[in-house]
Amino acid sequence: MTPTEAPIERDRMPAWVPKGIVLFWVGFILVEVVEGIVSALRALLVTLLVSLFLSFAIEPAVNFLAKRGWRRGGATALVFLGMLAVVAVFVFAIGSLVVSQVRNFVDDAPEYVQDLEEWINDTFDANVDFDDLREEFDDPEGPVRGFVEDLAGNALKAGLTAVEVIFQLFTILLFTFYLVADGPRLRRTICATLPPRRQQVVLRAWELAIEKTGGYLYSRLILAGLSTGFHWMVLTIMDVPYALALALWVGVVSQFIPVVGTYLAGALAVLVAVLNEPLDGAVVLGFVLVYQQVENYLFAPRVTAHTMSLHPAVAFASVIAGAAVLGPIGALLALPAAAVIQAFASTLGERHEVVDSELTAEPEPRAARRSRRQRRER
Question: Is-above-0.90 flag for pTM?
Answer without folding.
Answer: no
